[in-house]
Structure formats: structure tokens, C-alpha cells
Amino acid sequence: MRGVADVPNAEKIQKVEELNGVFLRAKSAVLADYQGIDAPELTRLRSHMRSRSVDFRVIKNTLARQASKDTAFELLDKEFKGPVSLVVSFEDAVAPAKALADFAKSGAPKSPKVICGVVEGKMITPAEVKALADLPSKEVLIAQLLAVFNGPATNFVGVFSSLLRKLVGTLDAVREKKASE
User: Does an H or E element contain 13, and which?
Assistant: First the structure.
């Protein structure tokens, strides 16, 4: 027999639809346990996430299970238990991990504990979330890649100019020797 709490109402249906939309648009998400964080610190955490273009929400597990069906985040179904928050990015797949790590480094007395994450349809462990957070930014990675591509050309120019200097030095020595004869 179903209890009163089990009966879907318009508000619950709207929340499931809204959360489903979040799951459909998200590039990545991190589930985190927010237990032990007081209300003022939770407000600071939300503000921190907003400033990094990351969506932070405390979610109801039952509604999250329903909302994640037929999305890339359905594999989180078994992880929706206990006090859970969802940290989502719609643009940068690494942003939730970086935002959580930055918050922990900001001197917060307590920060959310990472449970797991999903990046582009693949489930990742807390250690992998931490590894993502430790990655350099996209711009830095592109600059490093360009430096790698530029390295051989720079080396070639260096070797070629060294050979030219040696050739000029040798020709100059031959010219001086002929001039002294």
C-alpha cells in the first residue's frame, strides 16, 4: 500500500522534469556528500560554485533516480543515497571537480566529500575526480601542446644556423689562409 509521501504531486513532477533537463544538458557532474556543512557555509559553497559557472544543488535521491532515467547519468542510480549534492557543469567537463577542489583549498572548515562523478557518460571514482581537478586549465594544456609542436622546428632552426655558422667560419678561415699565401 502506498503512503501519502509516495503519491506524486505536481511539485515533485516539476522537480523531476527540471532535474531531467539538467541531466540531459550536463557535460559532467560530481556527486558529493555535504553532511556536516552548516547553513552559512552551504551558502558560501553555493556562491563559490556560481562564480565558477557550476550548478550546485542538494537533491532528493528518489527524484534524482527518476530524473536520471534514460540519460548519461542513469549509472549514478545506486549512488543516490544519503545526503547528496549534485555539482554540474554545462560547458566544461572539468569545472565541477576544479570548483570542489578550489572550495576545499579556500580554507572552508568542512567541504563536500566526493562520492563519484560522471564525465561525458563515464563514471569516475573520487580519485579520478581529484586527478581531473589537478589538471591544468584548457588554455595551459593548449599552450603546452603548441610548445611540443614548436620544439622540433626550433631545434631544426638552431641546428641549421649552427651549421651555417660553421660553414661561414670554415670559408672565412680558407679565405684568410689564401690571402696570407
Answer: helix 10-25
Mean pLDDT of the 5-21 span: 81
Instruction: Indicate the residue type of 139.
Output: E
DSSP symbols for 15-75: HHHHHHHHHHH-SEEEEEE-TT--HHHHHHHHHHHHHTT-EEEEE-HHHHHHHHTTSTTGG
| Residue-wise DSSP of 97-165 | HHHHHHHHHTT-SS-PEEEEEEETTEEE-HHHHHHHHHSPPHHHHHHHHHHHHHHHHHHHHHHHHHHHH
- Say what the pTM is: 0.69
Q: How far apart are CA 134 and CA 101, in angstroms?
A: 8
CB burial class (10 A; 0-12, 13-18, 19+) of residue 61? middle
Which CATH fold topology does 4-135 show? Alpha-Beta Plaits (3.30.70)
pLDDT in tens, 129-181: 998 888 877 777 788 777 777 777 777 777 777 777 877 788 778 888 888 87
DSSP state of 179: H
Q: Where are the domains of the chain?
A: 4-135, 136-181
Cell numbers placing 173: 678561415
Contacts for 138 with CB less than 8 Å, ≥ 6 apart: 92, 94
